[in-house]
Amino acid sequence: MAKLRSDVFFLEQRITEEELDRFDRQPTTRHYWTEDRDGFAAYLRVVSSESESAAQSAPPLSVGRVVVRPDRRGEGLAQVLIQRVIEDLGRHPLMLHSQVYVAELYRKFGFREVGDPFDEAGIPHIGMVRSASGD
Length: 135
What we know:
Blueprint: H1 2-12, E1 30-36, E2 39-48, H2 50-56, E3 61-68, H3 77-89, E4 94-99, H4 103-107, E5 112-120, E6 123-130
Parallel strand pairs: 3-4
Antiparallel strand pairs: 1-2, 2-3, 4-6, 5-6
């Protein structure tokens, strides 16, 4: 997981902000992934951070670090993982920061944009929220 995230976020996208953080080892963080013979093919995590979300008036479950290995892109692996998250946690509101160019992926699952686009780690993002019912 760490190698896939580092390869894509650090090497490919040249993000210089901290990639592996305290949320990765928290017992409330849920990790979702698919593997193949070469290791992790796709990954995402769901962080539960009620204290931080309360301060920001946002849902306490945040989907993040969505990543697909370059040789497996275009196969729908991110969609498979997002569907698993919704099956497991869709009864709760979910939030995420989407890179602007992939926001349509999340719209398919009931996420809606909130606020204006913003820069995160040098990449245009948009906040998105999915209600517990998916409306």
